[in-house]
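[User] I wish I could look at a protein chain and see how it folds. I have put the entry right below:
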Amino acid sequence: MTKTWLALLTVVTVVAGVAPVHAQPPGPVKVAFLGSLSGPFTIWGVQVRDGMKLAIKELNEKGGVLGRKLELVERDDKNSPSEGVTAFRYLVEREGVIAAGGMISSDVGLAVSREAEAARVPFFMTMSGSHAILKRSSRFTFRTCLVAAPMNMQPAAALIKERKYTRVAAIIADYGWGHAFREAFETLIKPLPGVRTQLEVAPVPERDFTPYLRKLQGLDPELIIAMGHPPGNTTITRQAVELGMKALVIGSWIPAEMTMQRVGELAFGRFIDYTCADYESPGYQRLAEQFYATYKRFFEHNAFSGYVTVKMVADAVQRTRSLDPKAIAEAIRNGKFVQEGYGWPISYTEWGEMKEATPIIYTYEKGTPRGNINPGATWRLRVIFRSPPLRPYVPAE
């Protein structure tokens, strides 16, 4: 084709109002799962990956994007920042992915986000809640489920006000995530009128929380905020019940099946947690039944986050008619994505924090789940509180 004809084709395309598709190698459009498929966050990572696979299957059955099939490329970050960075570079430079998602670890998320910003390729985090990950200059890193750590205390404060609690305790882990919660606890919970508080700090690998819980018995808390100690959530709950404490324990976005495996019936009406899935909506029900039929597992919020990540990327591709990662990131950052059954519409600040997050708090109860979302289970989830919209966290720099 001569330069003259190429120029004419470009003019005709623009006049017709159709943006030219960004040049890509022939073959499927590649999206990456980059997260934990081994190590302590495996149960989170497998769920996210399979949620992404469900979305790709659904999209491909409808023709893919821009007439091309989608393909999921998987990489295990092995819960290692260096491994995550190496994997991300490979995915971008060798596989040609247009986006990557599924990150769980905050430490790995921090390292990979810097690489994503440099490469200018969209990177989506399911967990990775450290408030240090996003900077005001971030343009290619996005949260999809878990909000920045300090934002999680806002729904807790709203719950305390609604239920008129007057005695609230917290147990945090002695590391960055835990201390972010300490700051939020002291800013949002301690000043509440008429509320007495107490906070205890435990090592990250702690397995016996009995000494810390005994220190709290004098307060006789109505609510124990354990979200600042993710590894201890289930143990704190079990040991609090064993000590005869009556407090509700609120966790930190722990997978539901993990909670039931580790706490069992002691969780009924005693352990409450956050989710970005609206477990009581018909839209969630339909997807959960499809997910169980395919993977024989319960469809919890990590899987839903993976599903939404792929659907959001595909939507941006269709709207921009481009496979250019920069165009995709801009469309996502400036748009809004609504998925039936998800906890809230997804829209973003300039730096990738969710603007409309309204976390849902649920508890566990004995009973048979509705429909075919978890056949054979003797437990189900019940929503007890819907948070008002959260104020997005603004990075210091």
